[in-house]
Protein backbone atom coordinates (compact mmCIF):
# COMPACT_ATOMS: atom_id res chain seq x y z
CA UNK A 1 0.00 0.00 0.00
CA UNK A 2 1.31 3.47 -0.95
CA UNK A 3 2.00 5.91 1.91
CA UNK A 4 0.42 9.36 1.04
CA UNK A 5 3.00 11.24 3.20
CA UNK A 6 5.86 9.84 1.16
CA UNK A 7 4.37 10.92 -2.22
CA UNK A 8 5.95 14.02 -3.86
CA UNK A 9 4.05 17.36 -3.46
CA UNK A 10 1.64 18.11 -6.24
CA UNK A 11 2.71 20.99 -8.52
CA UNK A 12 0.28 23.97 -8.49
CA UNK A 13 -0.28 26.02 -11.60
CA UNK A 14 0.93 29.65 -11.44
CA UNK A 15 -2.56 30.85 -12.35
CA UNK A 16 -3.96 29.06 -9.29
CA UNK A 17 -1.27 30.30 -6.86
CA UNK A 18 -2.91 33.06 -4.71
CA UNK A 19 0.46 34.65 -3.93
CA UNK A 20 1.45 35.04 -7.58
CA UNK A 21 -2.02 36.23 -8.59
CA UNK A 22 -1.91 38.87 -5.84
CA UNK A 23 1.42 40.16 -7.11
CA UNK A 24 0.14 40.28 -10.69
CA UNK A 25 -2.94 42.29 -9.70
CA UNK A 26 -0.82 44.74 -7.69
CA UNK A 27 1.51 45.28 -10.65
CA UNK A 28 -1.49 45.85 -12.92
CA UNK A 29 -3.01 48.34 -10.46
CA UNK A 30 0.25 50.32 -10.23
CA UNK A 31 0.63 50.31 -14.00
CA UNK A 32 -2.95 51.57 -14.41
CA UNK A 33 -2.42 54.42 -11.94
CA UNK A 34 0.84 55.44 -13.64
CA UNK A 35 -0.76 55.29 -17.09
CA UNK A 36 -3.75 57.42 -16.03
CA UNK A 37 -1.45 59.90 -14.31
CA UNK A 38 0.80 60.15 -17.38
CA UNK A 39 -2.25 60.63 -19.65
CA UNK A 40 -3.61 63.44 -17.45
CA UNK A 41 -0.21 65.14 -17.24
CA UNK A 42 0.41 64.87 -21.01
CA UNK A 43 -3.11 66.05 -21.84
CA UNK A 44 -2.75 69.02 -19.47
CA UNK A 45 0.62 70.02 -20.93
CA UNK A 46 -0.79 69.80 -24.47
CA UNK A 47 -3.82 71.96 -23.61
CA UNK A 48 -1.64 74.57 -21.88
CA UNK A 49 0.72 74.66 -24.89
CA UNK A 50 -2.21 75.13 -27.29
CA UNK A 51 -3.47 78.11 -25.26
CA UNK A 52 -0.01 79.61 -24.84
CA UNK A 53 -0.10 79.33 -21.03
CA UNK A 54 3.19 78.71 -19.26
CA UNK A 55 3.18 76.64 -16.10
CA UNK A 56 5.05 77.47 -12.91
CA UNK A 57 4.77 79.77 -9.93
CA UNK A 58 6.53 82.84 -11.35
CA UNK A 59 3.20 84.65 -11.53
CA UNK A 60 3.29 85.03 -7.71
CA UNK A 61 5.92 87.77 -8.15
CA UNK A 62 3.84 89.73 -10.69
CA UNK A 63 1.87 92.82 -9.72
CA UNK A 64 -1.79 92.07 -8.99
CA UNK A 65 -3.22 95.44 -10.00
CA UNK A 66 -6.53 95.16 -8.13
CA UNK A 67 -7.72 96.31 -4.73
CA UNK A 68 -9.04 94.19 -1.87
CA UNK A 69 -11.89 95.35 0.36
CA UNK A 70 -10.33 94.11 3.62
CA UNK A 71 -6.75 93.18 4.47
CA UNK A 72 -5.21 92.41 7.85
CA UNK A 73 -1.76 93.32 6.51
CA UNK A 74 -0.73 96.37 4.46
CA UNK A 75 -1.79 95.90 0.85
CA UNK A 76 -2.03 98.06 -2.27
CA UNK A 77 -2.84 97.42 -5.92
CA UNK A 78 0.87 97.40 -6.81
CA UNK A 79 1.56 94.39 -4.56
CA UNK A 80 2.14 90.92 -5.99
CA UNK A 81 -0.12 87.91 -6.33
CA UNK A 82 1.89 86.34 -3.53
CA UNK A 83 0.72 89.19 -1.30
CA UNK A 84 -2.84 88.58 -2.52
CA UNK A 85 -2.49 84.97 -1.39
CA UNK A 86 -1.42 86.08 2.10
CA UNK A 87 -4.30 88.57 2.37
CA UNK A 88 -6.83 85.93 1.33
CA UNK A 89 -5.33 83.33 3.67
CA UNK A 90 -5.47 85.70 6.67
CA UNK A 91 -9.06 86.67 5.88
CA UNK A 92 -10.00 82.98 5.72
CA UNK A 93 -8.28 82.26 9.02
CA UNK A 94 -10.04 85.27 10.60
CA UNK A 95 -13.46 83.91 9.66
CA UNK A 96 -12.48 80.40 10.78
CA UNK A 97 -11.25 81.53 14.22
CA UNK A 98 -14.21 83.87 14.86
CA UNK A 99 -16.67 81.25 13.63
CA UNK A 100 -15.23 78.44 15.75
CA UNK A 101 -15.27 80.57 18.91
CA UNK A 102 -18.83 81.85 18.39
CA UNK A 103 -20.21 78.49 17.24
CA UNK A 104 -18.70 76.71 20.25
CA UNK A 105 -20.09 79.24 22.73
CA UNK A 106 -23.58 79.28 21.17
CA UNK A 107 -23.61 75.50 20.68
CA UNK A 108 -22.75 74.71 24.30
CA UNK A 109 -25.34 77.19 25.61
CA UNK A 110 -28.09 75.82 23.33
CA UNK A 111 -27.09 72.20 24.00
CA UNK A 112 -27.27 72.64 27.77
CA UNK A 113 -30.51 74.64 27.44
CA UNK A 114 -31.95 71.75 25.40
CA UNK A 115 -31.75 69.58 28.55
CA UNK A 116 -33.09 72.25 30.90
CA UNK A 117 -36.03 71.22 33.11
CA UNK A 118 -37.56 74.58 32.18
CA UNK A 119 -40.16 73.69 29.50
CA UNK A 120 -39.97 77.00 27.62
CA UNK A 121 -36.17 77.12 27.51
CA UNK A 122 -35.94 73.53 26.31
CA UNK A 123 -38.50 74.10 23.53
CA UNK A 124 -36.84 77.34 22.38
CA UNK A 125 -33.52 75.50 22.13
CA UNK A 126 -35.17 72.70 20.12
CA UNK A 127 -36.76 75.24 17.75
CA UNK A 128 -33.37 76.90 17.22
CA UNK A 129 -31.75 73.58 16.37
CA UNK A 130 -34.48 72.41 14.00
CA UNK A 131 -34.62 75.72 12.13
CA UNK A 132 -30.97 76.54 11.60
CA UNK A 133 -29.55 73.09 10.94
CA UNK A 134 -32.12 72.42 8.19
CA UNK A 135 -31.48 75.61 6.18
CA UNK A 136 -28.47 75.51 3.81
CA UNK A 137 -25.61 77.71 4.99
CA UNK A 138 -25.52 79.62 1.68
CA UNK A 139 -29.14 80.74 2.17
CA UNK A 140 -28.35 81.83 5.73
CA UNK A 141 -25.41 83.86 4.45
CA UNK A 142 -27.72 85.53 1.88
CA UNK A 143 -30.29 86.22 4.62
CA UNK A 144 -27.86 87.99 6.92
CA UNK A 145 -26.20 89.91 4.10
CA UNK A 146 -29.07 90.92 1.78
CA UNK A 147 -32.09 90.83 4.12
CA UNK A 148 -30.48 92.26 7.27
CA UNK A 149 -27.23 94.15 6.70
CA UNK A 150 -27.95 95.55 3.23
CA UNK A 151 -31.18 97.08 4.55
CA UNK A 152 -29.37 99.14 7.18
CA UNK A 153 -29.57 102.95 6.89
CA UNK A 154 -26.80 105.14 5.49
CA UNK A 155 -23.99 106.64 7.58
CA UNK A 156 -25.99 109.76 8.58
CA UNK A 157 -28.86 107.64 9.95
CA UNK A 158 -26.64 105.00 11.60
CA UNK A 159 -27.82 102.96 14.55
CA UNK A 160 -25.67 104.27 17.44
CA UNK A 161 -24.79 102.75 20.80
CA UNK A 162 -23.55 105.40 23.22
CA UNK A 163 -22.02 107.56 20.45
CA UNK A 164 -19.12 105.09 20.23
CA UNK A 165 -20.46 102.13 18.20
CA UNK A 166 -22.28 102.67 14.90
CA UNK A 167 -23.98 100.26 12.52
CA UNK A 168 -24.99 101.20 8.98
CA UNK A 169 -25.01 99.77 5.48
CA UNK A 170 -21.24 100.18 5.22
CA UNK A 171 -20.47 98.05 8.27
CA UNK A 172 -19.99 98.08 12.02
CA UNK A 173 -17.79 100.90 13.35
CA UNK A 174 -16.00 100.27 16.67
CA UNK A 175 -13.49 102.27 18.78
CA UNK A 176 -9.91 101.15 18.09
CA UNK A 177 -7.24 101.09 20.84
CA UNK A 178 -3.59 102.08 20.56
CA UNK A 179 -0.83 101.62 23.15
CA UNK A 180 -0.07 104.48 25.58
CA UNK A 181 2.79 105.00 28.05
CA UNK A 182 1.42 102.68 30.74
CA UNK A 183 0.69 99.80 28.34
CA UNK A 184 3.75 97.73 29.30
CA UNK A 185 3.03 97.90 33.05
CA UNK A 186 -0.64 97.08 32.43
CA UNK A 187 0.22 94.01 30.33
CA UNK A 188 2.73 92.86 32.95
CA UNK A 189 0.15 93.17 35.74
CA UNK A 190 -2.44 91.33 33.65
CA UNK A 191 0.05 88.55 32.87
CA UNK A 192 0.91 88.17 36.57
CA UNK A 193 -2.80 87.94 37.40
CA UNK A 194 -3.37 85.25 34.75
CA UNK A 195 -0.35 83.20 35.90
CA UNK A 196 -1.53 83.48 39.50
CA UNK A 197 -5.00 82.27 38.50
CA UNK A 198 -3.54 79.27 36.65
CA UNK A 199 -1.43 78.37 39.69
CA UNK A 200 -4.46 78.79 41.97
CA UNK A 201 -6.57 76.59 39.70
CA UNK A 202 -4.02 73.78 39.82
CA UNK A 203 -3.65 74.10 43.58
CA UNK A 204 -7.44 74.13 44.04
CA UNK A 205 -7.82 71.01 41.88
CA UNK A 206 -5.18 69.10 43.84
CA UNK A 207 -6.75 70.26 47.09
CA UNK A 208 -10.24 69.22 45.96
CA UNK A 209 -9.03 65.76 44.89
CA UNK A 210 -7.23 65.29 48.22
CA UNK A 211 -9.82 66.68 50.62
CA UNK A 212 -13.05 67.02 48.62
CA UNK A 213 -13.35 70.65 49.71
CA UNK A 214 -14.19 73.34 47.17
CA UNK A 215 -12.34 76.63 46.85
CA UNK A 216 -13.83 79.99 45.71
CA UNK A 217 -11.57 80.02 42.66
CA UNK A 218 -13.67 82.12 40.28
CA UNK A 219 -14.29 84.89 42.81
CA UNK A 220 -10.62 85.11 43.76
CA UNK A 221 -9.46 85.04 40.13
CA UNK A 222 -11.97 87.77 39.24
CA UNK A 223 -10.57 89.92 42.04
CA UNK A 224 -6.98 89.31 40.88
CA UNK A 225 -7.68 90.01 37.20
CA UNK A 226 -9.50 93.24 38.07
CA UNK A 227 -7.39 94.48 40.98
CA UNK A 228 -3.86 94.04 39.59
CA UNK A 229 -4.48 95.78 36.21
CA UNK A 230 -6.45 98.51 38.05
CA UNK A 231 -3.47 99.08 40.36
CA UNK A 232 -1.19 99.30 37.30
CA UNK A 233 -3.48 101.92 35.76
CA UNK A 234 -3.41 103.87 39.02
CA UNK A 235 0.41 103.87 39.01
CA UNK A 236 1.28 104.30 35.29
CA UNK A 237 -1.89 105.86 33.87
CA UNK A 238 -4.23 104.68 31.13
CA UNK A 239 -2.62 101.91 29.01
CA UNK A 240 -4.69 102.56 25.88
CA UNK A 241 -5.76 105.51 23.77
CA UNK A 242 -9.06 105.07 21.97
CA UNK A 243 -9.89 106.31 18.52
CA UNK A 244 -13.67 106.78 18.40
CA UNK A 245 -15.33 106.80 14.94
CA UNK A 246 -16.78 110.20 14.00
CA UNK A 247 -19.00 111.15 11.10
CA UNK A 248 -17.04 113.35 8.70
CA UNK A 249 -18.79 114.21 5.46
CA UNK A 250 -20.42 111.14 3.93
CA UNK A 251 -18.72 108.50 6.08
CA UNK A 252 -17.16 107.78 9.47
CA UNK A 253 -13.50 108.39 10.17
CA UNK A 254 -11.36 106.69 12.83
CA UNK A 255 -11.90 103.48 14.77
CA UNK A 256 -12.30 100.00 13.38
CA UNK A 257 -14.73 99.11 10.64
CA UNK A 258 -16.03 95.57 10.29
CA UNK A 259 -17.34 95.19 6.75
CA UNK A 260 -20.88 93.75 6.40
CA UNK A 261 -19.58 90.80 4.38
CA UNK A 262 -17.50 89.64 7.36
CA UNK A 263 -20.39 90.14 9.79
CA UNK A 264 -22.85 88.23 7.59
CA UNK A 265 -20.46 85.36 6.92
CA UNK A 266 -19.41 84.98 10.57
CA UNK A 267 -22.97 85.14 11.90
CA UNK A 268 -24.34 82.67 9.34
CA UNK A 269 -21.59 80.08 9.76
CA UNK A 270 -21.59 80.38 13.57
CA UNK A 271 -25.36 80.04 13.93
CA UNK A 272 -25.54 77.18 11.40
CA UNK A 273 -22.67 75.19 12.95
CA UNK A 274 -23.87 75.91 16.52
CA UNK A 275 -27.09 74.01 15.79
CA UNK A 276 -25.09 70.83 15.12
CA UNK A 277 -22.75 71.45 18.08
CA UNK A 278 -25.79 71.83 20.34
CA UNK A 279 -26.98 68.34 19.41
CA UNK A 280 -23.47 66.96 19.95
CA UNK A 281 -23.35 68.55 23.42
CA UNK A 282 -26.82 67.23 24.27
CA UNK A 283 -25.93 63.68 23.22
CA UNK A 284 -22.61 63.88 25.06
CA UNK A 285 -24.25 64.94 28.31
CA UNK A 286 -26.94 62.27 27.99
CA UNK A 287 -24.24 59.62 27.42
CA UNK A 288 -23.07 60.11 31.02
CA UNK A 289 -24.82 57.76 33.39
CA UNK A 290 -27.53 59.39 35.51
CA UNK A 291 -25.96 57.64 38.48
CA UNK A 292 -23.09 60.13 38.24
CA UNK A 293 -25.53 62.99 38.80
CA UNK A 294 -27.20 61.21 41.71
CA UNK A 295 -23.82 60.45 43.28
CA UNK A 296 -22.76 64.10 42.97
CA UNK A 297 -26.00 65.27 44.57
CA UNK A 298 -25.60 62.78 47.37
CA UNK A 299 -22.24 64.42 48.10
CA UNK A 300 -23.95 67.78 48.40
CA UNK A 301 -22.87 69.31 45.08
CA UNK A 302 -25.20 71.89 43.59
CA UNK A 303 -26.41 71.59 39.94
CA UNK A 304 -23.83 74.06 38.64
CA UNK A 305 -20.73 72.36 40.12
CA UNK A 306 -22.24 68.96 39.24
CA UNK A 307 -22.45 69.93 35.58
CA UNK A 308 -19.03 71.62 35.52
CA UNK A 309 -17.03 69.14 37.62
CA UNK A 310 -18.75 65.79 37.05
CA UNK A 311 -20.88 65.69 33.88
CA UNK A 312 -19.03 67.85 31.34
CA UNK A 313 -15.54 66.33 31.91
CA UNK A 314 -16.96 62.88 31.13
CA UNK A 315 -19.16 64.14 28.30
CA UNK A 316 -16.22 65.84 26.58
CA UNK A 317 -14.77 62.41 25.74
CA UNK A 318 -17.87 61.82 23.62
CA UNK A 319 -18.20 65.40 22.37
CA UNK A 320 -14.67 66.04 21.04
CA UNK A 321 -14.59 63.67 17.99
CA UNK A 322 -17.82 64.91 16.34
CA UNK A 323 -16.98 68.48 17.44
CA UNK A 324 -13.79 68.22 15.36
CA UNK A 325 -15.85 67.35 12.31
CA UNK A 326 -18.01 70.43 12.81
CA UNK A 327 -14.93 72.66 13.03
CA UNK A 328 -13.69 71.21 9.75
CA UNK A 329 -17.09 71.79 8.15
CA UNK A 330 -17.09 75.41 9.30
CA UNK A 331 -13.68 76.05 7.76
CA UNK A 332 -14.72 74.44 4.48
CA UNK A 333 -18.05 76.31 4.42
CA UNK A 334 -16.15 79.60 4.75
CA UNK A 335 -15.35 79.23 1.02
CA UNK A 336 -19.00 80.27 0.43
CA UNK A 337 -17.77 83.80 1.15
CA UNK A 338 -17.26 84.32 -2.57
CA UNK A 339 -21.07 84.45 -2.95
CA UNK A 340 -21.27 87.81 -1.13
CA UNK A 341 -17.88 89.18 -2.12
CA UNK A 342 -15.97 88.69 1.12
CA UNK A 343 -12.25 88.67 0.15
CA UNK A 344 -11.28 85.23 1.42
CA UNK A 345 -8.74 82.90 -0.19
CA UNK A 346 -11.20 81.46 -2.70
CA UNK A 347 -12.53 84.85 -3.74
CA UNK A 348 -9.33 86.85 -4.23
CA UNK A 349 -6.78 84.13 -5.08
CA UNK A 350 -8.71 81.22 -6.65
CA UNK A 351 -11.11 83.76 -8.19
CA UNK A 352 -9.70 87.14 -9.22
CA UNK A 353 -6.02 86.11 -9.37
CA UNK A 354 -6.83 82.96 -11.36
CA UNK A 355 -8.95 84.88 -13.89
CA UNK A 356 -6.22 87.47 -14.42
CA UNK A 357 -3.25 85.09 -14.70
CA UNK A 358 -4.86 81.98 -16.18
CA UNK A 359 -2.69 79.82 -13.89
CA UNK A 360 -5.58 77.56 -13.00
CA UNK A 361 -3.61 74.47 -12.00
CA UNK A 362 -1.20 76.33 -9.73
CA UNK A 363 -3.80 78.51 -7.99
CA UNK A 364 -6.25 75.67 -7.44
CA UNK A 365 -3.46 73.38 -6.20
CA UNK A 366 -2.27 76.04 -3.73
CA UNK A 367 -5.81 76.73 -2.53
CA UNK A 368 -6.61 73.05 -2.06
CA UNK A 369 -3.32 72.54 -0.21
CA UNK A 370 -4.13 75.42 2.16
CA UNK A 371 -7.55 74.03 3.07
CA UNK A 372 -6.02 70.57 3.52
CA UNK A 373 -3.32 72.00 5.81
CA UNK A 374 -5.86 73.95 7.90
CA UNK A 375 -8.07 70.87 8.30
CA UNK A 376 -5.13 68.64 9.25
CA UNK A 377 -3.92 71.23 11.79
CA UNK A 378 -7.36 71.38 13.43
CA UNK A 379 -7.56 67.58 13.50
CA UNK A 380 -4.12 67.26 15.09
CA UNK A 381 -4.87 69.85 17.79
CA UNK A 382 -8.24 68.32 18.62
CA UNK A 383 -6.77 64.80 18.71
CA UNK A 384 -4.07 66.01 21.12
CA UNK A 385 -6.77 67.50 23.36
CA UNK A 386 -8.90 64.37 23.04
CA UNK A 387 -5.97 62.19 24.03
CA UNK A 388 -5.24 64.45 27.00
CA UNK A 389 -8.76 64.16 28.44
CA UNK A 390 -9.16 60.47 27.58
CA UNK A 391 -9.93 58.06 30.41
CA UNK A 392 -6.70 56.67 31.86
CA UNK A 393 -7.05 52.95 32.61
CA UNK A 394 -5.12 51.50 35.54
What is the structure about, briefly put?
The protein has 394 residues and is an alpha+beta fold.
Provide an overview of this structure.
With 394 residues, the protein is of the alpha+beta class. It has helices at 18-50, 81-114, 119-132, 137-148, 183-211, 217-236, 260-287, 290-298, 303-333, 345-357, 360-389, and strands spanning 159-161, 165-168, 171-174, 176-179, 240-243, 246-248, 251-253, 256-258. Strand 2 (165-168) and strand 3 form a beta hairpin. Helix 3 crosses helix 7.
Topology:
Elements: H1 18-50, H2 81-114, H3 119-132, H4 137-148, E1 159-161, E2 165-168, E3 171-174, E4 176-179, H5 183-211, H6 217-236, E5 240-243, E6 246-248, E7 251-253, E8 256-258, H7 260-287, H8 290-298, H9 303-333, H10 345-357, H11 360-389
Antiparallel strand pairs: 1-2, 2-3, 3-8, 4-5, 6-7
Helix pairs in contact: 2-3, 2-7, 2-10, 3-7, 4-7, 5-6, 7-9, 8-9, 9-11, 10-11
Amino acid sequence: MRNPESSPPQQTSMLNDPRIRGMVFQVLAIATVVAVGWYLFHNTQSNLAQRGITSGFDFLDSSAGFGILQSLIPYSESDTYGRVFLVGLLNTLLVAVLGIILATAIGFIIGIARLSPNWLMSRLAAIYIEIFRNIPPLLQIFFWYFAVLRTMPGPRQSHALGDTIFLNIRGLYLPSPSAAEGFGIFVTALGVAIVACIALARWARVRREATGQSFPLFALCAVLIIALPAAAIGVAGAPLQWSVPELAGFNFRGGWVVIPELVALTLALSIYTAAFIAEIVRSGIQSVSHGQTEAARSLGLRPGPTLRLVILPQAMRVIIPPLTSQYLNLVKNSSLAAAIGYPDLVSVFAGTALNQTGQAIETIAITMSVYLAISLAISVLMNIYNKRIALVER
